[in-house]
Every structure is written in structure tokens, then in C-alpha cells.
Amino acid sequence: MTTDSTNSHGQIDVANADLLLSTTRAVRKRLDLTRPVPRELALECVRISTQSPAGGNYQKWRWVMVDDPEKKLVIAEAYRRTYAPYIEAQKSAVSEKAPDDSTLGKIMSSSDYLAEVLEQVPVLAIPCALGNPAQDGNGDGQGWWGSCIPAVWSYMLAARARGLGTAWTTLHLGGEQEVAEALGIPPTVMQLACVPTAYYTGETFRPGARRPAEEVTYWNEWKNTDIS
Questions:
Q1: How far from 222 is each of 211, 212, 225, 226, CA to CA, in Å?
Q2: If pLDDT is split at 50, 70 and 90, which confidence band does 160 have?
Q3: Domain-by-domain residue ranges, the chain?
Q4: Whose CA is closest to 63, among 164, 198, 154?
Q5: Which residues of 109-148 are buried (b: 16+ CB within 10 A; e: fewer)?
Q6: Cα–Cα separations (whole angstroms), residue 210 to 119, 167, 207, 218
Q7: 101 φ, ψ (degrees, to nearest 5)
Q8: Which of 64, 148, 149, 173 could form a disulfide linkage to 126, CB 3.0–4.6 angstroms apart?
Q9: For the packed helices 102-117 and 69-97, what is the interaxial angle rounded to 10 degrees?
Q10: 32-201: CATH number
Q11: Helix, strand, or coil here: 24?
């Protein structure tokens, strides 16, 4: 690390911030299905998420936090209907291209597990946005999405800092209308994801395997990695 342990104002511990940012993983098998998540704790995570950047300070995000068993089941069943054909296609592709990739195998196993137990997760957080990119965005909606997604990531970081595990999932959107009806979400509101939220078990989170920054960073023109 080339930076000091705190920033120039002495307010941020860089090492802890880097640890949080590099070890906030998608948690599936390690979600504690038996321990309730207090609503106030989930609200703290949402409170932090509202500080994320938004174009024009138009805070279009909204959160539907679902802890009602019957409504969680509606979400889970919609998720599983989309998940089944999706994962079969993924497994077939992996079998052909990388049959010995143990990492992908572990990811698929944990994905299978989450699909099976989704309704048992204490809180299913549904981040939503007012409007949609076709109506409110520019170009292909990059600005619109850029004003929504940071809030969801901030929620996940805030959850990790509080001992909660999360995962970004979107497969329930195959039954978006059904879920919207169950949760009373109006047609003018777009669901962005479903973020299972629960206390996590264990403390062995570590950075994932990623390409070096030097390989994915280009200076002044595409593919120029020369930092000198």
C-alpha cells in the first residue's frame, strides 16, 4: 500500500476502508437463516445508501424491505421460476468450456442453495427507482443507472460493516409484475434487484481473485498500460 493509514484530514482509516471494499462478497451459503435482522439495523444500511451520488441530486431510489413470510415466498417462487432454466444453461456452458473449474462449481453450488432457501432469508431488500431509463435517461440510460446502482452498492457495504451479508440478485424480475402486485409497487416504479440480507456466519472474507489493476488500466489510449 502506498498511502498512509489515514487520509490527510485524519478522518478515514484507509486500511479498514480498503478491507471493507475488497471483502464485501456475494454471501449465499453463509447467510444465517435463523437470526432475525432488526428493522432498525436494515434502516441504518438504507440511511447510509441515501448518501450515494445521484445526478442532479434527484434521489430516485426507494426501498421495499420485505420480512413478511408470505410476501418473501412470492419473491422466492418468482426467483426460482427464472432461476431453473438460467442455471441449467449456465451449467451446460461451463461443462463444455471449463469442466474442471472448481471456482465456477462453487459459485453455482452456492447459487443453487440460495434459490432453495430464499424465502427463509430474514430480509429481502428490493431497491427500486422512480421512473425508468427509457423515459428519464439519456443515450442508453447510463446516467439513469449511474444514479441508482451506487445506492444499492452502498447498502451492501453498510450491511457488511454491520455484520450482515448480502448478494445482488435480479432473477426474481422474471416475475416482476407478480412481485409488484404482492408488494403494492406501482407501475411507474422500476424494481432494480433483490438483495437477500442476513447476518453472516464466520469471519473469513477475503479479496477475490481479480486481474491486476495494471492489466485493466489504460493511460490516454486503449490498451496502453505503460505507467512510466
A1: 17, 17, 8, 11
A2: very high
A3: 32-201
A4: 154
A5: ebbeebbeebbebbbbbbbbbbeebeebbeeeeeebeebb
A6: 32, 18, 8, 17
A7: -80, 100
A8: 64
A9: 160
A10: 3.40.109.10
A11: coil
b (16+ CB within 10 A) / e for 65-90: bbbeeebbebbbebbbebbeeebeee
Task: Judge contact between 78 and 175, C-beta under 8 A.
Answer: yes
183 Cβ contact partners less than 8 Å away, ≥ 6 residues apart: 64, 66, 71, 126
Least Cα distance to 110 among 128, 94, 131, 87 occurs for 87
Compute the distance between CA of residue 28 and CA of residue 110 in angstroms, rounded to an integer: 6
Q: What span, in angstroms and rounded, lies between the C-alpha atoms of 44 and 120?
A: 22
DSSP three-state, residue 162: coil
The grid coordinates of residue 78 equal 418468482
Higher-scoring residue by pLDDT: 216, 88: 216
Residue 2: per-residue pLDDT: 46
pLDDT in tens, 71-118: 999 999 999 999 988 888 887 777 666 656 667 778 888 899 999 999
Contact (Cβ atoms closer than 8 angstroms) between residue 64 and residue 126: yes
Alpha carbon distance 8, 200 (integer Å):
34
Q: Can you state the angle between helices 39-49 and 149-161, rounded to 10 degrees?
A: 130
187-212 in b/e form (b: 16+ CB < 10 A) is: eebbbbbbbbbbbbeeeebeeeeeee
Mean pLDDT (the chain) is 90
